Amino acid sequence: MTLHHIRLELAREADAPHGDPGDGYDLVMTLDEHSRLDAPALLAAPERTRVRRFRDGETLAVGQLTRGADGRWVLDFPGEDADAVGFRLESERFVPGEYVSLAEPGGPMRPYRVALVQPLDRTWAATTAPPDQAAPVSSLLITGRNSSLSMRRSSMSMTSTSKRPS
In Å, how far are 30, 54, 72, 118, 128 from 115, measured between CA atoms? Predict the structure, then answer.
């Protein structure tokens, strides 16, 4: 079960004819061998997920990926009215260039392009936890600006940055 950092950026739509890489989500979750969300792993350990909503370089909310009572996957931002519901997330492939649809409460489905998929090497956990324990993802905070994701826990720092072609 490997965690991945996945970046979703707003794709082309009427209000953004060229898309908007400054409007999107960062996800940390497990993927299966077909690059689809690993539902059994996520249901077994939902605390290992993280989601971050961002716009114009600012973090708007941080939460977890959960499964709603209706079976749909929800980007759950505790205490927020801006949870996003995924459209058939369990069947989507999370590979760069593919599209995912999300809807915020009261809003329409919006298309997001998968801009980055990067495995998170488990070696970062070994630097902050005893050898027999992995650092719990639930203790990590996701922060970032534009196309970077920083994951910090105590003295540990790991940054992965996506580069966009000019």
Answer: 17, 14, 23, 10, 29
